[in-house]
Amino acid sequence: MIITGLITQACVACAAIPKNGDGTSAKFDAAQSRLGYVQSKSQNVGFQKFEYQFSMDMTTTMKVEKENRQYLNLCKIYAGERIPAENMLETCKSAISAPGASQKTKTASYYNRGLINQKLDRLSDAREDFSAAVNLDNNFGDGYLALASLGMLDGDVVAARNYIETALTKKLRQPAYAHYLLGHALEADDNFIEARAEYRRALKLRPNWRDAMKRIDRIDISWPE
């Protein structure tokens, strides 16, 4: 506001200076030159301030993003542990609650925390995490598949089948496992013919999968074609 006021005052002064032969023309030129200097100075200072603030903002953003990636990656690593520790859950929580965490980061972290909870036999917490993951991204097939696995553990075959069938319409990292798990659900419901068909679909996607082959062999003994 001060600089704007100075510029306005300078403009008024310029307009008030007459152009005649008594030397006032030089005063007019000097005033114009001063006005140009004030404008240039104010613009440079403003740009320098903007440039500094932009640099600081970018540094802060990059630092936050780096921390978020670290939490996300650690959470993923911990989810792969055969016997995870309970304190690993806090890392996933940090990934979820980190400032500026993206939807993708939160979805993955809920899912990975769910896997940790499942391995810790905290099935209710695991179900909440998997549900949170699919609520954030309803195209996240792995989340539905994880919920199907919990359904099988609970003996709720109907719910498990529903989750698997939903998962098969979504984006899946391991579609072969979805067909394999559906085969399990069908077997549990004494639907052996359809179960065998699902195991074969799994084998088509993942050739020489011994678990699927054993399931087919077992069904073939009792239900030969």
A few lines on this structure:
With 225 residues, this protein is an all-alpha fold.
Question: Explain this structure to me?
Answer:
The protein is mainly alpha-helical and 225 residues long. The chain has helices at 2-16, 24-79, 88-97, 103-119, 123-136, 141-154, 157-167, 175-188, 192-205, 210-222. It has a domain at 64-137. The chain has 10 helices and no strands. The radius of gyration is 34 Å and the shape is elongated. The chain starts with a helix and ends with a helix.
The major β-sheet equals:
none
Strand percentage lies at under 5%
Mean pLDDT, as a whole number?
78
Total strands:
0
Q: Roughly how much helix do the residues carry, as a percent range? A: over 70%
* CA-based gyration radius: 34 Å
Distance between the termini: 89 Å
- The SSE string, one letter per element, is HHHHHHHHHH
Q: What coarse outline follows from CA principal-axis ratios?
A: elongated
Given helix and strand content, the structural type is mainly alpha
Q: Please, how many helices? A: 10
Low-confidence regions: 1-32, 37-62
Key phrases:
225 residues, mainly alpha, 10 helices, 79% helix, disordered N terminus
List the helices and strands and how they pair.
Blueprint: H1 2-16, H2 24-79, H3 88-97, H4 103-119, H5 123-136, H6 141-154, H7 157-167, H8 175-188, H9 192-205, H10 210-222
Helix pairs in contact: 1-2, 2-3, 2-4, 3-4, 4-5, 5-6, 6-7, 7-8, 8-9, 9-10
